[in-house]
Specification:
With 210 residues, the chain is mainly alpha-helical. The chain is built from seven helices and six strands, in the order H-E-E-H-H-H-H-E-E-H-E-E-H. The structure holds zinc ion.
Length: 210
């Protein structure tokens, strides 16, 4: 039996789907000697499962993408490689925004390439009598199409995020990013239950060790 996918039950603490995507590389800052980072994006199936979990694709689209990718292992692997490249570009762009640095042209190029390569897949149509609305445009769906939606989410965050709202968890080795929309921007941890409690336990240990 296949291993259960961690990507289906890790904590979505990014506060924004683009950062939840970035956080699919867990323990990003953990040194190699201690096991290094842990990638939850282990297969094309894991990518689709993540998109479904976040509501980026519906069940019918998931089924259609699985059908398209079936028997095309090389293409599915290429999309996975592209997804990881997009995630790492998003990570560096979010870090640049967080630290007030200029974005690297190569990272913008990666994001823009994905935006242009996978159009949004919806067209304007009469949906209710004369009323116009968005209608899914089924043609052109390909295994990499969900990457376009992820890139648009990432671009939207980078364009609209308020100063100091993209933050990094203070937990040692954690490396998770989150979008802090609280007015005073004092959130420190990806989650109180994991990194917050680990820090509390460590303080407790240090205090009583003496
Ligand atoms: Zn953390």
């Amino acid at each position: 039996m296949a291993e259960p996918l961690r990507i289906l039950d890790y904590g979505l603490h990014g506060g924004h789907p683009a950062l939840d995507f970035v956080n699919t590389l867990d323990w990003r800052d953990r040194p190699a000697a201690e096991g290094g980072p842990e990638d939850m994006l282990v297969s094309y199936g894991a990518l689709l499962a993540w998109c479904r979990r976040l509501g980026i694709i519906g069940a019918p689209t998931l089924a259609e993408l699985e059908r398209l990718a079936a028997g095309k292992a090389a293409q599915a692997t290429a999309v996975l490689t592209e997804a990881v490249g997009l995630r790492e570009a998003l990570y560096r762009l979010a870090q640049a925004a967080r630290q007030g640095r200029t974005a690297k042209p190569a990272d913008l190029e990666t994001l823009n390439r994905t935006l242009l390569r996978y159009p949004e897949g919806r067209v304007l149509a009469a949906v209710n009598g004369a009323r116009l609305g968005w209608k899914a445009h089924g043609e052109g769906l390909e295994p990499g199409s969900p990457l376009g939606a992820i890139a648009r989410l990432g671009a939207d965050l980078l364009v609209t995020a308020a100063p100091n709202s993209i933050r990094c968890c203070a937990g040692p080795d954690c490396g998770w990013l989150f979008h802090d929309t609280s007015p005073n921007k004092r959130r420190r941890w990806c989650s109180m239950e994991s990194c917050g409690n680990r820090a509390k336990a460590r303080r407790h240990y240090e205090k009583h060790k003496a």
